[in-house]
Amino acid sequence: MNVATSGAIDCDIHPAVRTTKDLVPYLDDYWREMRVLRELDRLDLMSYPAAIPLSGRPDWRPKAGNPGTDFQMLVEQALDHFDLRYAICNCLYGAQAVFDENMAAAFCRAINDWLRAEWLDRDARLRASIVLPAQSPDLAAAEIERLADDKRFVQVLFLARCDFPLGRKFYWPIYSAAVRHGLPIGIHAGGMFRHAPTQSGHPSYFIEDFAAESQAFAVQLGSLVSEGVFTKFPELRVVLIESGVAWLPAMLWRFGKDWRGVRVEVPWVKETPASIIRDHVRLTIQPLDAPPNSSDLLRLIEHIGSEDVLLFSTDYPHWHFDGDAVLPSLPATLLKKIQVENPLATYPRLAEAIQ
Amino acid sequence: MSTQEVADPRLHTDKSDPVRVGVVDCDIHPAPPAPDEMLRFLPKRWHSYMATYGARIAGQPTSGIVPYPRMAPGHGMRMDAWPPGGGFPGSDLKFMQEQLLDACGIEFGILQPLTIGSTTTNLELGAALCEATNEWQLEKWTRKDRRLKAAICVPQEDAAASVAMIEHCAPEKDFVHIAVPTRTVEPFGRKRYWPIFEAAEHYDLPICMHPPASGFHCNTPTGWVSYYIEEHVAFAHPPQTIITSLIMEGVLERFPKLKVVLVEGGFAWVPALAWRLDRLWHRMRDEVPHVKHAPSEYFPRNFWFTTQPMEEPESPEHLLDTIRWIGAGRLMFSTDYPHWDFDDPRNAFKTTIAPQDRAAIFRENAVALFRLNEA
User: Fold this and answer.
1) What is the 3-state secondary structure (H, E, C) of chain A?
2) Yes or no, beta carbons of A319 and B236 under 8 Å apart
3) What is the pLDDT of residues B244-267, one digit of tens each?
4) Mutation test of the interface with chain B: which of A198, A214, A257, A285, choosing the one with the most B Cβ atoms within 10 A?
5) Is pLDDT above 60 for B6?
6) What percentage of residues in chain A have a pLDDT greater than 70?
7) Least Cα separation, residue B180 to chain A (angstroms)
8) pLDDT, tens digit, for every residue of B128-152?
9) Is residue B164 part of a domain?
């Protein structure tokens, strides 16, 4: 057991669907038939191929099947080993990326019911994000309503690259439902490939594609603030999951300067973007694009300007660190905040469970 | 640039006034007073084409206006930059001398003409426009003021035409760099652009990459943004894509002396990108076996960054961390005259920079990179 993380709240772990066969018990008759007829047997995300090194630490890969598919391994290697108080399951699967919004909604519903029955019901430490068909905000909001009474769902989940920037009014029905039920919006690295991953088209290599994910996170923050989402929904919290973190200060500085120059374009943005973002946005710590030495890491945290924004995560079974090196080298008081206090402040449903 | 090589003693004693030290401005936008001035340099065939079919600029839903209209007339010009004698901001040499070159002590000014030759979808027209812009810079600017240095504008999507243009212009010493917009049809490390790198390396000409007003793809990976403020924040992203692509495609192994300047894209993001690429490369270098070094090792060898719009941390002294992480040797001062977010060398930095770093950033790095002492 890793004592340093004892009692920590892990804000990003990844149980994985093996194939859509796992989901059959949770699909209705129509989609069961379509699954066979249309050969919808695998919906793995192109933005997160299971075989790449990043997707599974070598010692965290089951003998058969994709990383994250073995319940017992997840319990032992993540929950028990790091002695976690809670862990939030973020299931990344292609239901979030397909073009047909009805197909997306059917498979998202199935994933959420599968998460409940095969993960949450089997270990009281597990919590989950509601997987959403972002293709259709109406269907997504309906899915939130369907599951809202189950307090083990503590967040709703988006991928970082969507159809539209997430500030657009198109998505507001989702935010309205999320706020109504005390659910933060989680945005996880990955995408729907509606647009090229860069402004210069598709890069050749996965490594480039993944490097560019931080751009998508920055765009989403720019959009959420500029479109006035936090003006309309002041209680909304957004969690950037697997973003890399280090890109944030540069974005805050540039955004702040631009806001001072052209705020007349977005008069509903009344405060500096940095203060809005620090009030509303949180980031998970794995992976951390950290400078090589710890004093520089402290400087970076100082640039972010808040000790409240970072949330502990292992990102199990993704391979960002080896052994127990899950915690960045930071002062103990700050680590305590990152591991427990910040997650509890971010996810009201976790705090409710403790009372 | 080693600070020991700085000859001028004033660089070490004068801590406050870069104007007295001499400044190289790496981002000046010359403009024609009216669009028809360029027609003089353009073959007749294209006059009627432009009049009939227009310039066909990629990624612009409306013509006659940029996709994200700016907050000041002239598509975002400094309000006081309109020449008293008429014409567009940046079009009157005498007024530019008065307002910029003399007032700000600009010893050398690097022209960055924003030609649509690089962003039109008609590549032949693009080549003609670039050629016109190149001739125009000599006639209208560099031959009239020796402080000003020209860009070889190229239609980068046609590498053969670009190389021909570089070969044609390189012997003329007033050309000190090759200009390419930051948003290209493919990531800039792809093989279609390699002939340009070969020519750039051969003639030892840096490639300066400046954001265009539009591009060939969606302006974010998650759909078109609504507002100029979002677009402008995202101007910091194409330079990151360029660096990533040039490293991961192996361009910097094949062309180790390539010099790339990221203009007007900010620089505070540079350290985070280097840390990110190193982390990913250590994990997945088997995907890019042709990349022989940790990505961060290419940064101090192949890349430079201009300073405008100056990064402004909430606590100004945080900029010193950024400069330390990047290295003062990679930064070059720029004003972006006559655009609205112009930086004046006298007050661009909101914190005190060490004298040797000031000398490097305001002057020495650019003098060395563009070989301005030879020009």
Assistant:
1) CCHHHCCCEEEEECCCCCCHHHHHHHCCHHHHHHHHHCCCCCCCCCCCCCCCHHHCCHHHCCCCCCCCCCHHHHHHHHHHCCCCCEEEECCCCHHHCCCCHHHHHHHHHHHHHHHHHHCHHHCCCEEEEEECCCCCHHHHHHHHHHHCCCCCEEEEEEEEECCCCCCCHHHHHHHHHHHHCCCCEEEEEEECCCCCCECCECCCCHHHHHHCHHHHHHHHHHHHHHCCHHHHCCCCCEEEECCECCCHHHHHHHHHHHHHHHHHHCCCCCCCHHHHHHHHEEEECCCECCCCCHHHHHHHHHHHCCCCCEECCCCCCCCCCCCCCCCCCCCHHHHHHHHHHHHHHHCHHHHHHHC
2) no
3) 999 999 999 999 999 999 999 999
4) A198
5) no
6) 99
7) 13
8) 999 999 999 999 999 999 999 999 9
9) yes
In a domain, B375, yes or no: no
Are A163 and B222 inside 8 Å of each other by CB?
yes
* pLDDT (average), residues A110-126: 98
pLDDT number for residue B375: 56
CB contact under 8 A, A305 and B314: yes
Q: List the domain range (segments joined by +) for residue B311.
A: 3-369
Q: The domain that contains B79 carries what CATH number?
A: 3.20.20.140
Confidence grade of residue A2 (pLDDT, cut at 50, 70, 90): confident
Answer yes or no: is the ipTM higher than 0.95. yes
Q: Is residue B374 part of a domain?
A: no
- Domains identified in chain B, total number: 1
Domains, chain A: 3-354 (3.20.20.140)
